[in-house]
Amino acid sequence: MLPRLLNLDAPSSIPENSSMFTHVKDTRRPEGVEGTQISFDILETKVWVWIIPFSNGNTSIGVVGPTTYINAIPGETNTQKLQYIINQSDYYRNRFEGIDFLFEPHKIENYSCSVTRLCGPGYTLTGNSSEFLDPVFSSGVCFATESGMLSAKLFLRELRGEKVDWDKEYTEYMRRGVNVFATYVKEWYTGNLQTLFFHRPENPDVKEKICSVLAGYVWNEENPFVKKHDKVIKNMAYMINMEKEKSAV
pTM of the entire structure? Predict the structure, then answer.
């Protein structure tokens, strides 16, 4: 709301994607750890289904993909469209087949957003009000926490009479983290990050460094997957694909 009131809205660098989601009473939830884990199924390189189990027995089901894809899903209603998507999932089809949705699925079009400024006289934008990338890595939680804490600390310093360079200490800092996460989101949809995720045998060191980034350590430039984020994913995916081509010859 505040960015709109201050005329700060700006186009996002993330491709135009949309989502559709609902909740169900998860009567066929797997026993054990699997039933408590957030998981996903990739239907196509740019289209994926999420499953988020809640402690009350309900589960969130959603699909994300290019807006053109989401709008072209067969069906007259959002319920029919999401049911169609679930039927395309070999992994989740049986678990949710025939289960009623608790509400008509909501659709959010072109959800990624950005702003021209993160702060100015008398205001600071934090959390999703400043930037929303994509739900694939839940980066919003990271940025909401970091931006909220940082803006509060800077504001307290200013109250004590200290000079605060908001553009440098807040905007530049937050933009660095956003840019790292944005690279990972983009490379997910190019398929390059998926190539690294599903390559076998996996490299434990690479896995640890990527997991560190996705856990929110996007300002740790000791990690080459942060410092060289704009090159490392595509370069490694290229090498893996080249090895696969050589093996196939």
Answer: 0.85
